[in-house]
Prior knowledge:
The two termini are 27 Å apart. The chain has helices at residues 8-15, 21-29, 49-52, 92-107, 139-146, 151-170, 223-226, 233-248, 258-267, 282-291, 302-306, 309-312, 324-343, 356-360, 362-367, 373-382, 392-400, 408-418; strands at residues 53-61, 66-72, 78-85, 117-122, 126-132, 173-174, 183-185, 194-196, 203-204, 389-390, 425-426. It folds into 3 domains: 9-132, Phosphorylase Kinase, domain 1, CATH 3.30.200; 139-322, Transferase(Phosphotransferase) domain 1 (Transferase(Phosphotransferase), domain 1, Orthogonal Bundle); 336-433, Recoverin, domain 1 (Orthogonal Bundle). Strands 1-2-3-5-4 form a 5-stranded antiparallel sheet. By secondary structure, it is of the alpha+beta class.
Amino acid sequence: MGNCCRSPAAVAREDVKSNYSSHDHARKEAGANKKQPITVLAGVPKENIEDRYLVDRELGRGEFGVTYLCIDRDTRELLACKSISKRKLRTAVDIDDVRREVAIMKHLPKNSSIVSLKEACEDDNAVHLVMELCEGGELFDRIVARGHYTERAAAAVTRTIVEVVQLCHKHGVIHRDLKPENFLFANKKENSPLKAIDFGLSIFFKPGERFSEIVGSPYYMAPEVLKRNYGPEIDIWSAGVILYILLCGVPPFWAESEQGVAQAILRGLIDFKRDPWPNVSESAKSLVRQMLEPDPKLRLTAKQVLEHPWLQNAKKAPNVPLGDVVRSRLKQFSMMNRFKRKALRVDTNGKGTLDYGEFLAVLLHLRRMANDEHLHKAFSYFDKDGNGYIEPNELRDALMEDGADDCTDVANDIFQEVDTDKANISFFSPFSCCRMHY
């Protein structure tokens, strides 16, 4: 398993002892034959990222960029570097999107709940966003590891998320992709700050301005996004979805297909009957309802959410564990997300955006991918020994590569859901239509 269960800092401190030159030559030679490399960042001289930073191992991979651990060669400070390949910047719109992400991160004020950007630079191959390192893990992973999870803890997390929303809206920014994976803890300490880390889909807005581009992750999309007419209110909806999941372990709008998820969002029916909702305070349920108000004009603003009694009296919120069922659901939800991210790492457009047809047909698309190069590569990623089958230990090891704890139970759950004989998954088994969380 190598370094999967050790912090990036621990690994880096050992790596720094090695000679820097081992990485230099390979990276300097990469892309040497490119023709007329594009310039993305105006006024920023092109320079080899390796001249100033040691770019180390991969920390994570999103739809648009790969994040690496990096070390400032002068100060030895440990940082994170999100590298966006220029090969994925095929149009002027793509380039504008990257410029906007950099502009937004520079525009937002320094805040303990937002990852800070140290600098943005580029070379012939990629644009690099050098940021503070958050090594405390993803939001849901921390909750699962803690074992004792309460309304009070959910209130603290919700306050941080909505404070990020309030800050964005105050400075004319819609986040557009609020989801648990985009919040990391700064460090491993119990009182570590929780930070928003990804503004790749964020956009500047003016009062009254409306947008029509469908972006984000389906479970967290507001109904007006699907209707292609939205404003900053969508961030409150997404935060409300996260709060619902924090309190019960599953999304409020769930279906067997992504088309079903879209239909459930548009129906807007919220289930407060399943466990543990009968034991959740009425104040918490009231806030969820008001954040998941279908009419954006009636939905609470960030300021109103923060003024809600449940958050105002967060320290008085019930400190009784929400139960093992919530923790188990969160663990499965988190691991299925991890499974999805790994299976879809061979990125096609690198944008993280969905057009309406793509969103409504994702499941059908996955089922048709049986002969697609993308799925073959994804399957091969899990099939470590190349025998044509994904076995339980291979799935478990792949899930643990991101630093998660023992994933045996979750791997077994995935096999029960995906496979028929529970022994292994072949390329032509239901792997190709597994329910993956977008």
